[in-house]
Amino acid sequence: MKKRKNKIYARIRAAIQLFYFLFFSSAYTAAFGGVKYIAAQLGAGEEIQWTAFVAALAGLCGFTIVFGRFFCGFACAFGSLGDGLYASFQWLCKKCKKKPAKLSVRLCEGLSTVKYLVLAGIAVLSFLGIYPRLRGISPWDVFSMVRAGNFRLEGYAPAAALLALIFAGMCVQERFFCRFLCPMGAVFSMLPVLPVFALHRSRENCKKGCSGCTRKCPSHVELPEDGSWETAGDCFQCQKCIGACPRENIHCGWKELRGNEALFTLVRAGALAGVLIWIS
Ligand code: SF4
Ligand code: SF4
Ligand code: SF4
From ligand 1's centre to the CA of 136, what distance in Å? Predict the structure, then answer.
């Protein structure tokens, strides 16, 4: 029964991811454009206008504060692409009867701070007005171009090579880019989240010695205690831990609203579509 439930839930998630990948794939780059634009305007001492990039950044940050990092788990094109590459690589390894390579937990924990350095580096370069001159090294530009069907990549060789390395990392480690490198992920992970949509678990109801949810989690998150306002900034709401828990002990929701994860998923998917339509 639980296996069937998990299967249905995985299919619903895949369908939502595909929908957003097809129809709203530029949301990530637009929001990231907002970060660069604000830093550049501050550096130039100019007024920050309400541009489409700023609206995308504000819309996604506002959404994340209310609903958690649902955008990351279900709707970001780059995150979904990473999920697809990782799943394909694991499937291939299984077919070839080879054990897939994996990074150690310790290395992953160390690498997860790199995204803050990437964010700070890009913000400083934008502030100093240098970033626009580095177009040829931005893997996101290449991703956006290829996604838009533009394969005229002359002058983008370093960026294309970086993107290829990121893709290789995505194959080896689940959510490699999100966890270690994404500057937008760094922004989202620092935002507070209203407790209604953040995931919590009741430690006292846990099976003795169990760490199934943390091991299953692509971010290796230790979920906060039920009833607290604490949120796990690195949790991007993929909800894999919920299916992994043998005691159904992981929930979002607050007080009497707890335990409506499937309904909350649909509500958030609808609300996010509204936000993205407003942005675009
Ligand atoms: S962490 Fe970055 S790349 Fe990953 S899903 Fe979130 S915004 Fe997208
Ligand atoms: S804590 Fe759960 S929902 Fe959050 S990233 Fe980990 S597995 Fe996904
Ligand atoms: S999988 Fe469930 S029982 Fe095990 S540690 Fe996580 S919440 Fe507790």
Answer: 21
